[in-house]
């Protein structure tokens, strides 16, 4: 599978309060590890002339990144690390872990009996081999799974229809390149693997930018604004007590000005993408009031 690995992330995004780009990273991380470990020589990706006319013209060995035991370990480790950084508790942990485990479930449908249960050499392997479908049929399968998830995503996110439209166009382009074009030449380790990693990184980065989770952009992202309002409330309550003491000493006191009423789609612009705090505080001297 290729773009369809994004589908579980989009579905889970409506169920947990976790950045969508992290869910996307969780979904793609087995492939990222496989390609990276292949470049390092720990795992393997090799161009196969026998499969040259198919959308996945490779033979692969990935006992660590794509065995069921390996993916379960990756899921637990990545979910724990992500939750320790962004929070979300057990619900977020379960969502991130499920996104990673979904990779094995989807890949077992398409790989050619090379998906192992364990990292050990004598492990049994599985795979239904749908990579060998005619390319146009594989395109419909892979992109169709993404399209089904996009229909749910469109109704579960702020400005979801616009975001889903952007992802649908980008996903179709990436899927077409993967299915019908492929990477140039036959050097899989040093050329194809890095190019495929760049595609995966681009998908994850694109989702984060679209959601406004990476940088200050985004299309109507409510998450940053909601987090900013919570932090603003904590900030104000915390400074009110400090202001009383500062006023008694005649020191500079932070004064909060009233925010103008704005439309929701512009609300996130009131907050810094770095720390979520409002940009509407200024310091004045107490005796100037």
Commentary on this structure:
The structure is a single chain. This protein is mainly alpha-helical and 289 residues long. It contains 8 helices and 6 strands, in the order H-H-E-E-H-H-E-E-H-H-H-H-E-E. A two-stranded antiparallel ribbon has the order 1-2. Strands 3-4 form a two-stranded antiparallel sheet. Strand 3 (115-116) and strand 4 form a beta hairpin. Helix 1 (6-13) packs antiparallel against helix 4, helix 1 (6-13) runs parallel beside helix 5 (135-156) and helix 2 (20-40) crosses helix 3. The radius of gyration is 24 Å and the shape is elongated. The model is unreliable at 220-234 and 257-289 (pLDDT under 50).
Main features:
289 residues, mainly alpha, two-stranded antiparallel sheet, 57% helix, elongated, disordered C terminus
The gist of it:
This protein is mostly helical and 289 residues long. The chain has helices spanning 6-13, 20-40, 68-86, 89-110, 135-156, 160-181, 188-210, 222-248, and strands at residues 44-47, 58-61, 115-116, 125-126, 253-256, 281-284.
């Amino acid at each position: 599978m290729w773009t369809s690995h994004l589908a579980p992330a989009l579905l889970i995004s409506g169920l947990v309060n976790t950045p969508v780009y992290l869910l996307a990273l969780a979904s793609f991380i087995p492939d990222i590890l496989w390609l990276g470990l292949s470049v390092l020589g720990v795992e393997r990706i090799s161009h196969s002339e026998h499969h040259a006319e198919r959308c996945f013209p490779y033979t692969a060995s990935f006992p660590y990144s794509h065995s069921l035991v390996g993916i379960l370990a990756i899921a637990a480790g990545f979910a724990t690390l992500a939750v320790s950084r962004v929070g979300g508790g057990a619900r977020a942990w379960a969502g991130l872990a499920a996104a990673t485990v979904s990779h094995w479930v989807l890949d077992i449908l398409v790989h050619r009996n090379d998906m192992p249960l364990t990292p050990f050499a004598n492990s049994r392997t599985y795979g239904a081999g749908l990579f060998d479908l005619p390319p146009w049929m594989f395109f419909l399968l892979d992109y169709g799974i993404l399209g089904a998830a996009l229909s749910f995503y469109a109704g579960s996110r702020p400005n979801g229809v616009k975001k889903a439209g952007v992802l649908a166009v980008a996903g179709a382009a990436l899927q077409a390149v993967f299915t019908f074009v492929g990477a140039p030449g036959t050097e899989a380790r040093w050329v194809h693997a890095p190019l495929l990693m760049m595609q995966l990184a681009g998908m994850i980065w694109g989702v984060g930018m679209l959601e406004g989770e990476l940088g200050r952009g985004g299309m109507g992202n409510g998450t940053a604004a909601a987090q900013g309002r919570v932090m603003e409330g904590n900030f104000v309550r915390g400074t009110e007590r400090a202001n009383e003491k500062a006023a008694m000493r005649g020191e500079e006191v932070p004064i909060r000005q009233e925010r103008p009423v704005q439309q929701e789609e512009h609300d996130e612009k009131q907050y810094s993408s770095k720390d979520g705090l409002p940009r509407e505080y200024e310091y004045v001297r107490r005796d100037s009031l």
